[in-house]
Amino acid sequence: MATDPVCGMTVEESADALRLVRDNRTYYFCCHECLRVFAEPEEAKRRLGRRLAVAWPCSAAVVVLLLVPAIPRALDVAAILAAVVQGYAGAGFYRGAWDALRRRVGNMDLLIATGSTAAFLYSVVVLAAPGRLPPATYFDASSLIVTIILTGNYLEQRTRRRAGSALRQLAELLPTTVTLLDVGGSHEVPLDELRPGDRIRVAPGARFPADGVVRDGRSSVDESLLTGESVGARRGPGDRVLAGSQNREGPLTIEVTSAGSDTFVAHVGELLQEAEMSRVPLQRQADRIAALFVPFVLVLAIAAGGAWYLLAGAGASIGLLVFVTVAVTACPCAFGLATPAALLVGTGRAAEAGVLFRGGDAVERAATVDTVLLDKTGTLTSSEPTVRGVLVLPPISRDELLRSAAGLEGGIDHPLARAITEASATTGGLPARFRDVRLDPGRGVVGTAGSSRFELIRGDAAQEEGVDLAPVRGWARDVERDGSSWTVLLRDGRPMGAIAFEQPIAPGAAEAVRLLGEQGVRMAIVTGDHERAARRVAGALAIDDVHAGVSPEGKVALVRQYREQGRHVAFVGDGINDAAALAAADLGIAIGSGSEVARETGQVLLVRSDLRGVPLALGLARRIVGRVRGNLLWALAYNAVLLPIAAGALVPALGLGVYRFLPVAGAVAMGLSSTTVLLNSLTLRRDPGAKGRAPAASLRARPAAEGV
Predict the structure, then answer these.
(1) pLDDT over 70 for what percent of the chain?
(2) Which fold has domain 175-262?
(3) How does DSSP assign 493-546, residue by residue?
(4) Catalytic residue at 4?
């Protein structure tokens, strides 16, 4: 079973079903009108506006003519105007009803067409054959029903457009042409001709047409629509840029790494479309209700109308009005729209903040999380280490030591190498020159200068090899006690000095831990690093529960252990090394940046390497699920209250005269019902939900000072 993306009705995925393929995704529709609204929303809105421009004047005139019967041939003119409303303004309802009958499904159009046509045809018979039926006519009711419901549809389309603004923005970000650089100079080419490896120039103020790496130039880049970060990011040679972000200052030469459907912005669009079309588990019962709702309403309308006519002796006209009122008051669309409306708005709001959900199931899982297991490196700490301290052994100086180390590490792309290069740059001198430099994986780097052999190797590797480290042993012991790592520079096997590194607490990590604690979420650090390093980070963040030296398999076992205790577990990692744990958890949250993040294991993807996205994701998920529940409750309450009223619950108190206005009042209520669902969902745009509390059944955290 599929869901109509416009009205939310359940549709069979049969061979003859109405469908549309867009971006390699198949959408199914209950009728041609919904298909047209989805395929050409602007044209559908203009067409609806034209129908309303005819319907409202005609309906108003019908009401006046029936209120002032002294006007010559008032009923005849009213009948003609009502026919215009039914035949032109209400034509879409008839087409939708016919589609529903052909496919043996129920939809809203079937109820509207049945109710308004019954009122119109009854009035025509009264006018054409006087004396056959009670003399009352209902041209005003039939016209106003069509007009008011069309007005509701128009408001719903405008509201839906606001709800889908994030998805629409992402789809409209990329330029249509790009400036391609080649041996012949530069020239403009269409965007779809761009390929990985091409070099392009992006002018100040322009948006990047593809993901890539800066090869020349420096600038500030606005990534706010992709990552939620309002502060411009500095970008220079070697830095990555994302399609859809904006170049603020100087021109940049970019080497394309991903283009077209492989870009990060394209993946974001796909994820938002998945969320829009997905159904959270709590919606399944509502789907079953919606599928049976239209037949039930038609049976109820016939039964109620017949009961008043046959059993209560109210007459044919009252029986007809009861039938019409029940048919036009019912609103199955509210059930169908309850989930997609909230998911579309909520996941769009999350995407603007750099948080991507993979479908509605991920949203509902996130809403139940009460325990978060956190990887350390690259999650709680910065993925880029810094030089913390330097030990020099005479006669070498600190600056000479750093320049020698930078000379060995200069051509190596490794976090420690980058830290040494950056520290050396502060000395003002050039890196030393070595020959025959080679990387010794897992150990360090080796090179030659003059007749001497130089090595920059990890401290633990030097200890295992039996290098004489007596001059640095006391210093190294202090470094390790603080949880830092170190390397030693050797010349012909003798230490010249050593460099200590630390991975600082990631920006935003402390705030993220505080927010998770406020949400009632329990936290634990799970890392493959040694105990001292893990305890240093845990102490800085006030987290008690620490599991150090854990292998990838051990992380999976820990996830299962927590789940066996009845906890709903989220695992937060970089999405690559922690793939198994991400998959084993109730919710995997991959933290990182770049286009690869959209392909990782996690059900929640954080575009930026910022842990504050975790409490935002969990809080917003609770708000989304809360809106879905609220929407479903509204749909249930609306129909549970108004259908009995439509069937005659107010007659004992107000008399049968209530049916002079109930059909129109029912149409107004039905028209507002779906719009109310959308408006309720739109409130998510103003409330990020980052501070939403954990579920009532979750395990409560101890105070922040105590950790977990």
Answers:
(1) 88
(2) 2.70.150
(3) TEEEEEEEEE-PBPTTHHHHHHHHHHTT-EEEEE-SS-HHHHHHHHHHHT---E
(4) no
